[in-house]
Design goal:
six-stranded parallel β-sheet, five-stranded parallel β-sheet
Amino acid sequence: MRLARLDRVKPNRVPLFCPRSTTDVAATNPALNWSDLDRKAVDTTRVLAMDAVEKAGNGHPGTAMSLAPAAYLLFNKVMRHDPTDPEWAGRDRFVLSCGHSSLTLYVQLFLNGYSLSLDDLKSLRQWDSLTPGHPEYGHTPGVEVTTGPLGQGIGNAVGMAMAARRERGLLDPDAAAGESPFDHYVYSIASDGDIEEGVSHESSAIAAVQKLGNLVVVYDDNEISIEDDTRIAKCEDVGARYEAYGWHVQTVAWRGEGEYAEDVEALWNAVQAAKAVTDKPSFIVLKTIIGWPAPKKQNTGKIHGSALGAAEITATKEVLGFADEPFAIDDEVVKHAQQVVERGRAARAEWQKSFDAWATANPERKALFDRLATRTLPDGWTAALPEFPADAKGLATRAASGKVLEALAPVLPELWGGSADLAESNNTTMKGEPSFIPSEYATKEFPGHEYGRTMHFGIREHGMGSILNGIAVHGGTRPYGGTFLVFSDYMRGSVRLSALMKLPVVFVWTHDSIGLGEDGPTHQPIETLTALRAIVGLDVVRPADANETAYAWRGALEHTDRPTALALSRQNLPTVDRSKYASAEGTLKGGYILSEASTGTPKVILIASGSEVQYALTAQERLEAEGTPTRVVSMPCQEWFFQQDTAYQQQVLPNGVKARVTVEAGIRMSWDRILGDAGEAVSIEHYGASAPASVLFEQFGFTADNVVAKAHASLAKVGEITGHKTGN
């Protein structure tokens, strides 16, 4: 039973500001070396957070105020980083999972000498500023990952920690613990909102199985959210929850039975203890008071997501001993904080010696490092892609994808991935490759070790997505992850962030239509392809046969600035005879003329994707036999097609040919742009049913007969024919 929280400080009372004296801390812990100037830097953080939100008129000041000592401690005393080189490969990573508290990060970037100015803080949340409402990867130097949707940052941090271990395994596996230039830590600050979101459970559970001793999460346990006291919706013991996962858990209580005391030394010691535990991820429960030390609004939901107001800011600055003027900073404090720049440069120089010694001793691995660092694919790698012979019986595209992965394994060591407990169904396991798993957790079915290649996410699609993003944003390796296409909905938040950050993640989604058959409508994606195409920056590729699948993988890997979704079939699809039809290389352009009209000038164009291309080809034969010149276009990826120049798009889909039919076992919505006002769609606008795939395709109209009927209907609309059945 949870006891009433008598330790909470009443909002209308000004608590005594009584940290340990700076003299005591410096004397008892010289390694920390916490001085009066450090304390002033922390208070400067609070003041800047208040002023920035006040100037913007909106934002989240409270958490940035109470987390100021923790954030400053990490950036100024704990982390190995060089503010003059935010991309330094040997740096520790920092993830602000509670991205709404962006000032927790922005102010530290300013104080610690990154290329963020006081004017940038004054421009919080404004047009074209470096300080948007939530941190954005690739926009602000020093921001490692885009955060804001709660819980994602924890998953990203797990992915970063996994990527660091995989990278070490590729480049320096035999080095003693802590002695490799590729050893570094991943630190994250998380909030109640982060640990409440389900994605954090999924990724945190995986982190425990993976025994990620290079991951340290500081959980801000302030017990306040937008709806004020978190007791209204939360009663679990979060520390016990993480202990149950298998994390190393510590509690640092600044908020206790007595007066509030920001014991920086206790947090420092907890971080050092966390770093000493190498076989578990670490979770530090930090009990704070949100908005400390604002006299009236501390410890309330009001200070979580709104400006304090002029009167409360004045009162808070009085408590802190600051002048009542906006953005007042002491140059001596900033100069002191930015001494971390010289320390960072020295650390980088020392690291460089270690790196250079490694490079000299390992020239082949150094060449691999250089290639991975730039996401450059090796010369001639495409020669490894398999070519599949024509076969009427064919191969499921999920199976073809598995064969592509097996073929690429020897030539692309950076490529690794797995599945959300569907490896056999998704065909995501590279044959003969060990699992990425501590050896004591390896199984008979999946032998492996800590530097393995095949990942196992369990039934945790959303966690998988956020981890894949973390791996990609860490740099070096290229991740993929699989599940059924319909379950992409479970991970949509992660997929959207992958697109937003332009990360080269490959999502392998199989069982792509009603063709999965007997499992029925719960597992048959009807609206899913259209919904995924609505995500800006995500390439959705649905190949028609095994050879298109090989080229789909090629396109996905050659695109290093955006994610790719592969939608693959459960059922066998005929492998198109490329001696009779066009090369599957056209896949790389998203859409291509698979089979030209007999006259070279079509009267109707049939456009299909995936498993329905076969019906378009059969329909073409029938339409041609009745005297209608018909072109078949395979359109595996609309995004790639519309990235081509206008001349190519017009070559494939000339504006003058208005009679068109699209064929895809999903809703028609995403095809309207192509159909125009005279086109007809062979689609499914309702949920599926439980039956063998062949029965479902027949019953729901995915047949050559229906494609022909739709072609007649479209031709009738443009006045090309009269008197035919339309199929409507």
